[in-house]
Amino acid sequence: MHTIIRDRDCAREDFVFYSRRIIRLLLEHGMDLLPFEKKEVTTPVGTTYHGLEFAAELCGVSVIRAGEAMEGELRDLLPGVRIGKILIQRDKQTKQPHLYYKHLPADIADRHVLLLEPMLATAGSALAAVDVLLEAGVREDRVIMVNFLSSPEGLRRVATERPRVRIVTSAIEDRMNEHAFMIPGIGDFGDRFFGTTDSGART
Q: GO MF annotations for this entry (predicted)?
């Protein structure tokens, strides 16, 4: 699937289809990290099955815009899930992340959070989003970042600054280039997924 979507000539419908398949796997793995408790049910043949059920309330929070690509798959898995939004963009002058918008569930402090952020390059925006959650009362160890691609530099930074945040990713890239694009990379995930102007790393 990565071979298909990393191809610069991949058709958008194929990019969306295979990206969504990977996102579904990432979300299912992220949910496996949530706490469970034992539950017994009676099967159709009258015997007892010793199983599990979620022992925590959950919500999703997407980092606009690329993170919204993950919302549909999360809703397919959990149709009634609450989803918050955070908009963070880098200031063109200072290059620092700036919070422009947030709208979170009122009871988010009582929940575990799947933070939907497909690209983890420098980790600046991702860490700023984590800070928004912490300020809202979410415990650091209750944040699971669901991430499509990660750079080694970004992973190291998150591990250093927010060591209790867990990350689920489908690939760790080789490095970042001088423009902070991940190598071998995928270009701009949001542009490719939503079909807007390609701001990938073509030269």
A: GTP binding; uracil phosphoribosyltransferase activity
User: Residue 202, CB half-sphere, CA atoms under 13 Å: how many?
Assistant: 9
Fold of 1-194: Rossmann fold (3.40.50)
Is there a catalytic annotation at residue 188?
yes
Of residues 65, 90, 139, 166, which has the active-site annotation?
90
Q: Out of 94, 160, 197, 203, which one is annotated catalytic?
A: 94
**175-191 pLDDT, tens per residue?**
999 888 899 999 989 99
Sorted by sequence, the CB contacts under 8 Å of residue 51 that are 6+ apart come out as 38, 39, 40, 41
pLDDT digits 0-9 by tens, 104-136: 999 999 999 999 999 999 999 999 999 999 999
Q: Parse the chain into domains and list their residue ranges.
A: 1-194
**Residue 51 tokens, joined:** 């199983």
14 among known catalytic residues: no
Give the pTM. Answer: 0.90
Low-confidence ranges of the chain (pLDDT < 50): 199-203
